[in-house]
Fold this sequence. Notes:
By secondary structure, the chain is α/β, with parallel strands linked by helices.
Amino acid sequence: xxxxxQLVKTEKNNxxxxxxxxxxxxxxxxxxxxxxxxxxxxxxxxxxxxxxxxVTFAGNFLPFIFLFxxxxxxxxxxxxxxxxxxxxxKGYQEMYPRMPFNGNVIVxxxxxxxxxxxxxALRNTASFFSGGVDAYTTLFRHLDxxxxxxxxxGADIKLDDLKGWDSLSSLTxxxxxEYSLENIFISSEFRLLFNEGALIRFLExxxxxxxxxxxxxxxxxxxxxxxxxxxxxSTIYIASSFSKDQKNTxxxxxxxxxxxxxxxxxxxxxxxxxxxxxxxxxxxxCQQGNNTHHFAKVHVCFQQAEGKNCCHCEKCYRxxxxxxxxxxxxxxxxFEWNIESVKAFEKSLxxxxxxxxxxxxxxxxxxxxxxxxxxxxxxxNYEWYEWFTKFDFEEYSRxxxxxxxxxxxHPRIKKILRKxxxxx
Length: 424
Ligand SMILES: [Zn+2]
């Protein structure tokens, strides 16, 4: 039986668009049984053409269509988006040479319903924003364009996580108030379409998972089509998280080889800041802070401590050290940091309660040690960090792996691990 997905209806109801679709073939086991997909915008979408709204539907299914050789049928689609599909496919193919990317998209009628640059004097820009180091770097690089800040509920913050959403939306409101920008909050069911667990085995040859490796780039970006139409956007920025110097060492759905090919109407997508690694971005944010006295109130924390940085998880520590190594003060950047925090950090590192893997050590911690030594004269209270600049990460790594081995060889843990294996 052929695998097909058919968009049957695009229902518009004020701020809500609801895509109703049908599925046939074995692919059904990789999809959740619900056959609709709703997206809510902060503005009325009744006047936005279906060909533009449908970009969000097609964009989210595209990587799935490619991987499972599916025929996707859509009644109406923006022609610029339709014509970028082949380049997007090539981008995925380049990222995952060992996986086949087939499938096709059949559109009953293509439309050009965006206003041309001639028809509208004003063209704006927008940037996806989540409050992290990457998002702030991109925002500052384009601040003079006064970009709209686009933030999605239903991506990393699940739709039922209202507390998490409250934190994220407050963070983005802080940024928009500080820089006189406008927020656009979109909530979307796009993570309720694919059974990410069921896809794990199929995606094994890629070495990545569905959301991170395949869906999230174009999935997020395609929500921008309706916004691009409404506000005449010339460009939508999406911040890079990996950098050029890491090429061929990672896989990720959001990458210049894919994102930069995506088009809708006259709007282009820019995967921004790829030439900068994380330390370069921190350097830039510190420089901006010194020049403008506006410091990026970055949120980097894994712990989601009510929208604040916990200041004692691995990501918080890493970012704090990167800021210090630039000669700046983490307290300017939404972190709380003093001599007690330094002592707590030293204790957790030396007791191995702070676990840093080898990739993290070589990618972030060893370079930050070197930079600290180099910028010694610029660093306030350098004596607080002298022990860190001499810290032996090779020895740490050896001891940590021994400790982890011991931990996992404990009979009780072994039993639990066996159970997990049986359940899979
Ligand atoms: Zn933290």
